[in-house]
Amino acid sequence: GSTFTVASWNADDAEALIKQWETTSGKKATFVNLSCGGGDAAEKYNNMFQAGDDLDVYFVEADWALQFVNDDTKTAPLESLGFTDANFSEMYSYTDEIGKSTSGVRKGASWQAAAGGFAYRTDLAEKYLGVKTPEDMQKQIGDWDGFLAAAKKVSDASSKKTAFCDTLGGLWQVFAAGRTTPWVVDGSLKIDESCQKFADIAKTLWDEGGVMKCDQWATEWLPAGQTDDVMGYFVSTWGFGDTILCGAAGGKDGATYGKWNVCVGPQQYFWGGTWMVVNPKTDNAEEAQSFIKTFTVDDEQIKTYALDKPEYCNNTKVMADIISANQYKDTYVLNNLGGQNYFKVLDESVKGVNLKGLITPYDATIKTKFVKSVKESYLEGGKSWDDTVNDFKNAVSTELSDVNCD
Questions:
Q1: Cα separation of 63 and 364, whole Å?
Q2: Would you say 108 and 60 are in contact if contact means Cβ atoms under 8 Å apart?
Q3: Helix (H) or strand (E) holding 261
């Protein structure tokens, strides 16, 4: 128990969390940086467990959290550390759902509510849409019909040079938050009418030049924000800095820095998020409890982190207080948004997220296969919807033998 070990796939959040916890607790933590993408972390954690490496608290992502949350040999119930339902009563409900096992046991807690919005170039919005404020933009693109209409206007006015939004992946992230059917029900794959609706929205944008045809994280993705090749990016709370939006602007001296605003967009949504879980074999239960409590229960510490990181944190009361007082510290992000306090926009977005009964252990794989099938079969391949569905089913059945895809 002499070493309290916290592990994550990168240092983006972990180092800031550890620094604040060490300062307030007077204790020390050892950080294990897996130095990989979030999607690759699961395998590395499994290797750590197999090797018997020292591990107390570790971070998991929404898309694959259940792999660990459902495994009692790899995650401990937070109740065993002394936490109660009352401790987490101020959390946004969707984050609590992701942190629970399929049987309803709370295993993970998140310090962030990863609500997102649609960030757009203010100069291009005024030029092509006559938009002068985020409120004006929201009126135009507050539903999918309005979003498509705006995209067509921009495409036509720019002779297809300017795509309205960044990627299919971003588009799906937003659209998926409005689904009401889980991917798997009673062991069978469920493809509801929203799947075809998304595919048709994507096809309209694809054919009209309304969406960039590169992938998220591709080399050309962010640089497009410094030219007139794209008007907007779908951005979550963790993406307003260099990870996405400030990076897309080119940083402080970038070509489009300071020329961005954000609105909710056509659908309230979240993208990503990170949950803290505890190894059942931890020999530092007191430190683990303290670490999690600091960022998910202690209102003052949560407020400090929200303002200093900055981060839209997972506490309804704290965020309401910050927004009502119009508090903000980060000038880098704020100046890129022309002084707009984006916490208010994210607050509107997160209120519409509801994942009750929608989470399955297969979500990460199925979502990836779905977007890939829509892109390769429906958009690039010109196949019918029925053939696209068949390709999707085949892709899922190949990867997930225990899911019925008939």
A1: 5
A2: yes
A3: strand 260-263
134-191 pLDDT, tens digit per residue, is: 999 999 999 999 999 999 999 999 999 999 999 999 999 999 999 999 999 999 999 9
pLDDT tens, residue by residue, 207-234 = 999 999 999 999 999 999 999 999 999 9
Q: What is the C-alpha end-to-end distance of the chain, expressed in Å?
A: 51
User: What CA–CA distance (Å, rounded) separates 249 from 259?
Assistant: 8
Q: What DSSP element (H or E) covers 7? A: strand 5-8
Closest CA relative to residue 272, chosen from 343, 337, 176, 198: 176
Q: Determine the Cα–Cα distance for residues 213 and 168; give it in Å rounded to an integer.
A: 8
- What is the token pair recorded at 99? 């942190």
Q: C-alpha dihedral over 383, 388, 390, 391, to 10 degrees?
A: 100
Range 105-108, long-range pairs (CB < 8 A, 24+ positions): 105/77, 105/79, 106/77, 106/78, 106/79, 107/68, 107/69, 107/75, 107/76, 107/77, 107/78, 107/277, 108/60, 108/65, 108/69, 108/75, 108/78, 108/275, 108/276, 108/277
Read off the tokens for 230.
Answer: 């794209």
Contact between 327 and 344 (Cβ < 8 Å): no
Spatial separation of the C-alpha atoms in residues 329 and 308, rounded to whole Å = 7
Token representation of residue 53: 């490496």
**Does 356 score more than 90 pLDDT?**
no
Q: How far is the C-alpha of 170 from the C-alpha of 326, rounded, in Å?
A: 29
Cβ(342)–Cβ(246) below 8 Å = no
Helix (H, G, I), strand (E, B) or coil at 405: coil
- Give pLDDT, residue 329: 77
* Distance of alpha carbon 351 from alpha carbon 270, whole angstroms: 10
* Rounded-to-integer distance, Cα 139 and Cα 72, Å: 47
* Tokens found for residue 105: 């046991």
State the CB neighbour count (10 A cutoff) for residue 243: 14
Query: Mean pLDDT across the chain, nearest whole number?
Result: 96
Structural tokens at position 379: 């958009």
Contact 178, 194 (CB under 8 A): yes
Phi, psi for 177 (deg, rounded to 5): -65, -15
Assess whether the previous peptide bond of 310 is cis (omega < 30° from 0).
yes
Q: What is the mean pLDDT of residues 324-340?
A: 89
